[in-house]
Amino acid sequence: MSLELLLAFALFAFVTSVTPGPNNMMLLASGVNFGVRRSVPHMLGISLGFMVLVMAVGLGLHQVFEQVPVLYTALRYLGAAYLLYLAWKIAGSGAPDSRDSGARPFTFLQAAAFQWVNPKAWVMAIGAITTYTPQEDFVTNALLIAALFALINCPSVGLWTVAGSLLRRWLSSPRVLRAFNIGMALLLVASLYPILVDIKGTV
Questions:
Q1: Residue 203, in any domain of the structure
Q2: According to the UniProt entry, where is the signal peptide (predicted)?
Q3: Contact 62, 123 (CB under 8 A)
Q4: I need a labelling partner for 170 at 20 to 30 A (CA). Which of 9, 17, 123, 161 fits?
Q5: Measured in Å, how far apart are the chain's first and last C-alpha atoms?
Q6: What's the rounded Cα separation, in Å, for the pair 196 and 73?
Q7: What would the mean pLDDT of 41-54 be, rounded to a whole number?
Q8: Of 11, 15, 43, nearest to 162 (Cα)?
Q9: Which residues are CB-neighbours of 19 under 8 A, at least 6 positions away?
């Protein structure tokens, strides 16, 4: 991979990782509700789970979806449904130390598994493989792309967790925190709009 292509990919990875999306909305809420330390497994799960997804796309999963497009469509429906469920959970969560909230941050495995039903993650993975992976020595380059994406992704999404943590003192009131969580839930639902429009257009 040339240096020019590597720099272009690094910019792509940063921009797609740091811009709003389901992962970042949930990390912002996690930073507010649980702080940075308790959100670290969530951040690592996103980055490493996404790395595995990029590897899978690079090693042939994208070709499977091209041959059987109904599988990709089904995955997108599943992802949209799961995001709506997460939005409902976020909207209903209270202060982290309230005894009746039952709120818990995402675990590493939950965050990693979520990447497989996250529509934005699929768009990012397919874009990375089809646009920035040289055909020569393709498998090695695909693995390199996946590893670099994870390295860039983790600190990028971490910015949202830190931002959420910094907001904690301004959201100390249960009523304000509840309003914030409802706002985050609505933004998470709004992030589904392009996906739902695309699904509707293919039906």
A1: no
A2: none
A3: no
A4: 17
A5: 39
A6: 11
A7: 95
A8: 43
A9: none
Q: How far is CA 139 from CA 49, 133, 180, in A?
A: 19, 9, 44
Helices (H), 105-137: 108-114, 119-132
Q: What is the pLDDT of residue 111?
A: 95
| 189/186 Cα distance (integer angstroms) | 5
Contact 1, 144 (CB under 8 A): yes
Residue 32 belongs to domain spanning: 3-198
- Confidence check: pLDDT of 22 > 50: yes
Quote the pTM value.
0.74
Angle at 141 between CA 139 and CA 143, to 5 degrees: 70
User: Quick check: is 34 in a domain?
Assistant: yes
**8 A C-beta contact, residue 162 and residue 43:** no
Task: Tokens for 152, please give them.
Answer: 């860039």
Instruction: Indicate the number of domains in the chain.
Output: 1
pLDDT at 65 over 70: no
Write out the two tokens for 175: 């009523």
Q: Yes or no: say if 2 and 136 are a contact pair by the CB < 8 Å rule.
A: no
Contact 110, 27 (CB under 8 A): no
Least confident of 91-105, 114-128, 154-168: 91-105
